[in-house]
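The protein record reproduced below.
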Amino acid sequence: FWKQLYDEGGWTLYCGYRFDLEGRSEEGYAVGIDQIYATEWMLDYLQCNSRSECYTKNKQFRQMEADMHNLYPAWSDLMVYRNGRNFGNVPGEDSRFDQCDFEWEQKVVEPRDLSKGNVARSILYMNRQYNLPVSPEMMTVMKAWNKQDPPSEQERIRNDRIETLQGQRNPYIDNPGLVDRPGMVRGR
């Protein structure tokens, strides 16, 4: 993952911490790989009690879980707070970390503005590619975030690399307006 997709290093999604090609943060933070469309959500939808059960029960699960369009580098400590919570807007501006604009309350997390489009396009992709459910409330937020934070050059380059590695592009990065076309978003 690190050497193939981030061969010159990169930045964590939620906090923007710089990391090297080994996945180490310059600030000394542990960096891990976060699944934007959470594994817990996949397991719940596929009605599996565990990952190992899903590996044997659903052949497509491995592909879903390993799809690079859904995987982003993230500060490991923050991933504990993310832990399967839905994405949404958290009222107020009460960042919970000194150097990272990431908010949460009960069952909802809100990343920094610069990350919202990436999150939205990952969720939209997983919804479309694997027919994975997204609640109407979260879908409304994802559509808004997709418009609020258009794809950056870095996100486009990442999309090109993922296509080379796994043979699949995220069409919402190529054309964010697809979200408004009939049939391009699947409701649940």
Q: What stands out?
A: Strands lie at 10-11, 18-19, 31-35, 71-75, 86-87, 103-105, 108-110. The two ends are 31 Å apart (CA to CA).
